[in-house]
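Suppose you are handed a protein chain with no further information: no name, no annotation, nothing but its sequence. What can you learn? This example shows the usual starting point.
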Amino acid sequence: MVVTVRSFAKINLGLGIGALRADGFHELRTVYQTIALHDVIRASVGRGSGIEIRCEDPRVPRDESNTCYRIVERAMAALKARGRVVIEIEKRLPVQGGLGGASGNAVAALLALERALKKQVSSPERLRIAAEVGSDLPLFLVGGTVLGVGRGEEVFPLPDLPAIACVVATPAIGVSTPKAFADWDLLAAHGPRLTKLTLPAASDRMGEFGRVLSAWLGCLSQGKHRSGKILSGVPVSEGRGRAETPLLDLVRTGIENDFEQVVFPKYPELREVKRVLERAGAVYASLSGSGSATYGLFASREVAEKAAARLRKDGVPATATTTLTRPQYWKKIFD
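A reasonable first move is to predict its three-dimensional structure. Written in structure tokens, the prediction is:
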């Protein structure tokens, strides 16, 4: 039996980079948000042994370095299952674009494998296995709006927010995440000499991210976002809808993606994409992860469609989509 599931993408609503840890990773703070763009994963288990990865995209590895391979290998051991596993990846998302494509593929492969075997890994074991394979994987076991801490693998579900229109631009630019981290370390160490920007200490940045998020959650839980003012006290439009308000209250607190400070100077065309989104009406625009995907949040699907069309006219691949709430995420995975 072949089991087919959707493998959704994510964007980062703010991303704070902290100090380099003893394990070689950076301390991170970010809010993940799942969106409707997706790949398709098909899994089957037959006679024999081994794991086979199939994908027509030549950039996707088919050996044990593939995240799907690695999570399936661990899941088969955890379930004490036998058989030859075939994972087919239908790529629609960009490879290494900052949308968590490979990570989402791995979690989708795990979910499809469980259905094919009619067995399930326990929830704690799922999260442990996912975190072993990669920092972005655990968020796809939660879905919706998710807080990521540690190196991003420690995830906590945030209050589920209504969906909002989104445009994702995917320029054909390869941004190396390890190189972006290295550039950040250089900037943090020698910022005053390399740029006019003076960076606050890593601990201060992490603390500020936490304070902003805590204030937003406090207002959200008390329903204060409906008062017509965002956390900064700036009045907002009386006509803002239920879907727009709480999510934008978060992004308008001033949280940013730190990667923009090192990626945009090297790839000014990505900065221009962000500017186009803002000029087209995005109430918030940002790089996702280390890029190159850049997104904008819009008050309506109609405005989002026009913004995507404007980017495509300029030769930049762009798609209008929507964010996914947690119930939508889990329903659409298997729908």
